[in-house]
Write a structure and sequence with these properties.
The chain is mostly helical and 489 residues long. The longest helix has 35 residues, at 239-273. It starts with a helix and ends in a 12-residue tail after the last helix. It has helices at residues 4-36, 39-52, 55-60, 63-69, 75-107, 112-119, 121-127, 130-138, 142-165, 171-192, 206-237, 239-273, 278-305, 307-314, 323-329, 331-339, 342-348, 352-374, 377-401, 408-436, 442-464, 468-477. The protein has 2 domains: 1-204, no CATH class; 206-489, no CATH class. It has 22 helices and no strands.
């Protein structure tokens, strides 16, 4: 019988490689669409998704995470959860249609009526695949999930390119938002070959619903905290401001989104299985955490130091006004890399109540920052966003890990090494840019800067930071800390 530990490692590797491919696709599509479309096109869609995006939290209602976190799940429970998800997705689609007139009136933009109505169909497509995707995660079939995600992104991107090329403007962005989840749901249905039965009462999903409701409320509060500024910018500064801010924000979040998607599913599933073994839990988390930081911290340095070249290469010359916004938002890459993995700890231990309390304290702080910075436009909001995130980081860490196998000292030590290495590497790369940068156009200059920073970062981290043995051991011996995973759902 196939060793399931090896299966998990191969699946995790496939997931990481797939996310690398997805990163290239997302950056590539952004580069092309930013040149085919205008900031106003992105702004129009961004004004809608800043509001309707919160509905994506309800389409799952936290039930996929509840399915993965449970030690065992019956077929009756899965079927009942599927129909609950589908009902919620349908209701959200209807609600989006009903909301369309209000969206057009709020933003004083009549085109948003049709955009909101069409985007609502995506909720039904997403909801239909929630439990099928959760089954694949429970079975540790990360290779299949990785392929499905890549195929869906490529499909949605291909449609967007075709429509943008033929002059459909913002409708290209609407289409990719709807097509990608449709492709994903079709693929997970065929891959699992699972057909849900009829819903039943009293099948033991009450606790799962409770877990999911807390998780959803937590996500709702966090979503408001991280997205309300786009609504405010759209209302008071218009579509162009949202377009500039939104593309800078998207570019900032692509690295952390991809890394968390690549590593998070594997780590969460593993931590859920060893939640009662404190030492194995701590060891596995810290190794995974170190890997995320090592991949993310140098990206932060590149974005802060070479913001103008990044924007010029990725978005093009007509997006030059996004450069200061992008630079001001760049520190949040590091902050999210530090705090987001702590969610793996909380949710794998079933501590969703604490996560909700943290979100309820943090949300008013970040919203107050937006309001203070709003009078200065996108740059003021970006500065306020980063400032509050930096100040909040330490209290957030301390609250998350209190009473868990992870200590504050563990986190600080793990963060300090890649942070110090990135600062020194950034200084060296900036020196190289000062000497040779004026001789090169933006693309080769960015390649030189990034390569110099990355190589010097790795050298400093591995040899002077004492991390070489850690990462070599992570690559060749991580399976020693993985739990045995039962087969089936």
């Amino acid at each position: 019988m196939e060793d399931l530990k090896e299966k998990m490692i191969r699946g995790g590797l496939a997931k990481v490689l797939s996310q690398g491919a997805n990163f290239v696709v997302r950056i590539g599509s952004l580069m092309i669409l930013a040149r085919l479309l205008d900031p106003n096109d992105f702004g129009l869609v961004g004004m809608v998704t800043a509001v309707t995006g919160v509905f994506h939290l309800f389409k799952e209602f936290g039930l996929s995470t509840a399915t993965i976190q449970r030690a065992s799940v019956t077929q009756e429970q899965l079927s009942t959860l599927f129909w609950i998800n589908l009902l919620i997705g349908g209701l959200l689609g209807i609600f989006s249609l009903a909301l369309a007139p209000a969206m057009a009136k709020f933003y004083r933009e009549p085109r948003l009526f049709a955009v909101t109505a069409v985007l609502g169909t995506g909720f039904f497509f997403n909801a239909a695949g929630v439990q099928h995707s959760a089954i694949l995660q429970r079975e540790m079939r990360f290779t299949s999930l990785a392929v499905i995600e890549t195929v869906s992104i490529l499909g949605g991107t291909a449609v967007a390119f075709a429509m943008a090329t033929h002059g459909y403007g913002y409708w290209a962005l609407v289409a990719t938002t709807v097509i990608a989840p449709l492709i994903s749901t079709i693929c997970v249905w065929f891959t699992t070959a699972w057909v849900p039965g009829l819903p039943r009462r009293q099948v033991g999903i009450r606790s799962m619903m409770g877990f999911g409701s807390k998780l959803t409320l937590n996500g709702l509060v966090a979503y408001l905290a991280y997205n309300l500024e786009k609504v405010l910018l759209g209302r008071f500064w218009g579509a162009d401001a949202v377009g500039l801010y939104g593309r800078a924000f998207q570019l900032i979040n692509i690295p952390t989104d991809n890394l968390n998607s690549a590593v998070g599913g594997v780590v969460f599933a593993a931590l859920s299985r060893v939640q009662h073994d404190a030492e194995r839990f701590r060891n596995f988390f810290l190794k995974s955490y170190s890997l995320v930081l090592a991949l993310t911290v140098p990206i932060t340095a590149v974005c802060v130091v070479f913001a103008s070249d990044v924007i010029s290469v990725v978005l093009g010359p007509k997006w030059s006004e996004a450069v200061p916004i992008f630079r001001l938002l760049a520190p949040t890459i590091l902050i999210f890399a530090i705090i987001n993995p702590l969610g793996w700890v909380l949710y794998s231990l079933g501590m969703v109540g604490r996560g909700l309390r943290i979100a309820l304290v943090f949300a008013p702080l970040i919203i107050a920052g937006y309001v203070v910075g709003l009078s200065h436009g996108p740059k003021g909001v970006a500065f306020a966003y980063s400032a509050v995130m930096v100040v909040w980081a330490i209290p957030h860490i301390a609250w998350c890990i209190h009473g868990t196998p992870i200590s504050l000292w563990d986190i600080l030590v793990t963060v300090s090494r890649p942070l110090a290495a990135s600062i020194l590497a950034g200084l060296l790369a900036f020196a190289v840019r000062s000497v040779y940068g004026h001789l090169l156009p933006s693309l080769p200059r960015l390649a030189l800067e990034s390569t110099t920073l990355l190589l010097s970062f790795l050298a400093l981290l591995f040899f002077f930071g004492g991390q070489k043995s850690l990462y070599l051991d992570l690559l060749r011996g991580i399976k020693r800390d993985l739990p045995a995973i039962p087969s089936g759902v």
